[in-house]
Amino acid sequence: MDYETLQNHYTRFLSSRVADRKLRAFWSGALPAHVTPHPDPIELAAGMPNEGLFPIESLHVNVVDEPFAHEQYAVRARQLHRDGGGRGEEFDSRAFVQDRLERGSLVDVWRYDPDRPAALSGAVAYQYAESRGQPQLLEFCRRIVQRINPPAYDQWDVTLAHGSSDSLFKVFETFCDAGVTVLAEEFTFTPTVSNIVAAGGTVVPVKVNVTQDAESQGIDVEFLADLLDNWASSRYAHLSKPRLLYTIPTGQNPTGTTLSQAKRRQIYDLANKHDFLIVEDDPYGYLKLPAFDRADPHHNAYASDELSVDDYCDKVLSKSFITIDTVGRVLRLETFSKLFLPGVRISFIVANKFLIDRIVDFADVSVRAPNGIAQAVLVNVIHHWGTKYHDDLQGWLHWVMKVASQYTHRRNVLFQALYSTDAYKKGLFTLTEPSAGMFLTLKPSFEKSDKFPLSERERALDVFNYKLLEEGVKVVLGTKMIVCRELSLDRSFFLRITFAYAADDLQLQEAASRISRAVERLFDEY
Ligand SMILES: Cc1ncc(COP(=O)(O)O)c(C=O)c1O
């Protein structure tokens, strides 16, 4: 497969705006054959400030090697780390930082850094740059893809974007016009729906199974196959056949479900059969949570060092749709938000080279490259971690596994606490245990009481929410993350709960008690 083949096949997927979204560069152009330019011309063309005008001489970023390392100095540590955490003292930030500095935790970004080619210097990072991203970061992203999710074809590439929110915006701007149909999980990250609709598209929901069973959870493949095979006689016959499927395959938001590999294969086969693209939005894939063990609820395979980096990459992580993609129809979206900093606003898209070029065209005439300071911080911190291991990728993956370990611990604490509550023991709610990500679903057992016939459940879920707020817990309602009320309302009576933000074990345990009280009050007082 060469670039021309990709161009021939994928041009017809592009929105009508793409052709006009071409940079009108005024600073370059083809030369006639008889002109041989000077090998070392003096730059009087580019409107770029000379780097001597940049006021930042150096940046110094103080990093930790472990999440929550600062809590060894903090009152807030409490029980989150069983082996650490002072009680009763204020967090002495300065003492902590001083201590770290003495132990060599500083990452330096210098204006010029001729001796460290893998580092990104200030003079380069603060300057105007390629929209695609700085070469060091692009190369690092390619290495992540090559090691963990190598596409099943050669002509792929990556581009950076400003967080997956931006990746999604650009992707749907690139593919959606009025009349374009996009499939999406019936419960989804609703800002994506806004992007699709704003670009003129229509979202058609695909039924999902919100169940504990690893093989059947997520997109209902039979439903999807039936819908596509019988489109012309379906309720969507007035719409065009789908051009795209938007899916959050691992640790789905909001259901917490993960698609099995077998289902990924079947969905990919449907994409080939019906010729649609798959947009795989995967912010949570690296947060893989080993199965919760009720007999040993605190078991955490990451913390007990049972997993090597190779095990993590080869046995633990779910494989992306792109690993089975032989023709370049998958766009994979990764982000540094959940693994590094949401505020760094850096993500990347992996797709075939022709489509990546179209997305870069869009960046060229809009936001251009992600913030250079953010790229410099990210590249240099990763490089710093890399010096402690075999290479940058190993250093990064060690960090990522530590983050996944924290999520596993939090999941363990919350599930143990929820399973121990009175309301759970009375059967007043059920839970689905996620195998990835930061979300779980909690379903009140409405069927247990004749106070809650189907027609009453939407209101009852709202009342449940008020009781949760009175007891002191904030959650998201399944009813708020529906694509189409008509199709999904009856299946949407669940809460999306996250263990990502709570301060510590005690807060998670307290949250479980408050949830239990709210459920009991719902059943007693409704
Ligand atoms: C499914 C999904 N996609 C995208 C995002 C946005 O990520 P980013 O911070 O990279 O813009 C989120 C964040 O919550 C998400 O849940």
Automatic annotation (TrEMBL):
Keywords: Aminotransferase, Pyridoxal phosphate, Transferase. Its cofactor is pyridoxal 5'-phosphate. GO terms for molecular function: 2-aminoadipate transaminase activity; aromatic-amino-acid transaminase activity; pyridoxal phosphate binding. CDD domains: AAT_like (cd00609). The keyword Transferase applies. SUPFAM superfamilies: PLP-dependent transferases (SSF53383). One of its GO terms (biological process) is tyrosine biosynthetic process. Pfam families: Aminotran_1_2. It comes from the Eukaryota. Residues 127-515 form the Aminotransferase class I/classII large domain. The keyword Transferase applies. Belongs to the class-I pyridoxal-phosphate-dependent aminotransferase family. This is LAFE_0H04280g1_1. It comes from Lachancea fermentati (Zygosaccharomyces fermentati). The lineage of its organism: Eukaryota, Fungi, Dikarya, Ascomycota, Saccharomycotina.
